[in-house]
Amino acid sequence: MLQIQTRSRLVNTLGYLGITLLVALPLAILMVRAGHWQQGLLLYALTCAASAALLLLGLLLLLLPRYRPWRGICCPGTCC
């Protein structure tokens, strides 16, 4: 029997948040270059902090056994 695995909603949300942060970073740089220093630097700082938090959360999810099928690693004695 073919077993289809769908991605977790949390995994999808982390991916979408990562894409949003990749778009926000150049926007922050453009804001600083346009002369909106305070708003641009604030957006840059928030983007960097959110990226660091996203990276830590992603690494934490890699360690949890619930998300093992998305890593592609199977342990002996488990059903993958």
What does this structure look like?
The chain is elongated. The protein is 65% helix and 0% strand. It has one domain (9-67). The model has no long low-confidence stretch (mean pLDDT 80). It is built from 2 helices and no strands. By secondary structure, it is mainly α.
Write a compact overview of the structure shown.
Keywords: Membrane, Transmembrane, Transmembrane helix. By secondary structure, the chain is mainly alpha-helical.
Largest sheet: none
The pLDDT mean sits at 80
Order of SSEs, N→C?
A: HH
Rg of Cα set? 18 Å
| N-C termini distance | 13 Å
Topology diagram in text:
Layout: H1 9-33, H2 37-63
Helix pairs in contact: 1-2
Based on the model shown, name its key terms.
80 residues, mainly alpha, 65% helix
